[in-house]
Amino acid sequence: MRILKDETVAVVVDIQERLFPHIHNHEQLKKNTEILVDGLNVLEIPMLVTEQYKKGLGETIEGIAEKIKDCPAFEKTAFSCCDDAPFTEKLESKGKRFVILFGIEAHICLMQTAIDLKSKRYQPVIIEDCVGSRNPENKRIAINRMLQEGITVTSYESILFELCRYAGSDAFKAISKLVK
Asked: How many domains does the chain have?
């Protein structure tokens, strides 16, 4: 199954300032995520943003917030993005088949969202090197569970080139610079 640009939307899940410093390997996660978001912007992939209980966890972290400032954002208290009606309505209005997911935490909000998306006949795509948990063992277990559920797991570089599809274009050149 090829993931096609015209059939794809991305969701930035809960990358928030009060939780992010506690995520395992958060500095590398931020770097990877910034590259991914920049590449998705180059490819003009629409993005939605969620923030879990902003009063407690704060805003999306600096560096990523600037890159997604024009994307629709949804505050939620449910762990699964799919349990938030405004988010679900906006996602449905996009009319896309593939949903790229990245953010935190892998074993809670990302996993529950991915499983719910799969049950709603979407094709969730987890960007493994752009998701994290406080405990790396929880992330490993969540990735295994999602694979068992038939959810696609890939890397940011792989998905960017898959969505780009051809070498030689301006998008290819821009993405090549990003991943160097």
From this structure: 1
